[in-house]
Amino acid sequence: MKKTEIDFDVQPMTFKKILVAVDEDDSSSSRKAFCYAVTLAHAYKVPLGIVTILETGDLSVYDSLQPNVLEKERQEMAAAVDAYVQKAQDFGVDDVSRFLGEGKPGKQIVREIIPEFQPDLLVCGSETQDKSSIFIGSQASYMSQNAPCSVIVVR
């Protein structure tokens, strides 16, 4: 009998380290992605990384040149990630790490955070302006195309 591509044994697939990207600008999809990642990390009993990126390109030129404005943004971002870390710990995830960055989220996560944390799964949200769109957002698209690990995009 000729062996076909469908002729294989199903092997359980689990992940050993999960990274979730959260973005308060897309809070609905970020929260869903976070809940999914926390659920997996808890079920698999694996480390969870939580990352958010300050999109400095979203700041006005005036704001980006004022150290106090930029520092306030950084402090707010850190406080938000700390709240996510606490929620994950309260849910029962024992090993939680936080990561902060600045720049384009997709590029920073793929180029800086993933090599540092070395997850085998990245979970991110995707919320587009046009809710009828079949396309995922630009940052989620970038990460799914360029990340060296598996990526799950949650809407």
UniProtKB/TrEMBL annotation:
Gene3D superfamilies recorded: HUPs
Residues annotated as signal peptide: none
Stretches assigned to the UspA domain: 15-155
CDD domains given in the database record: USP-like
Family as reported in the entry's similarity comment: Belongs to the universal stress protein A family.
Protein name per the record: Universal stress protein UspA family protein
Source organism of this protein record: Paucilactobacillus vaccinostercus DSM 20634
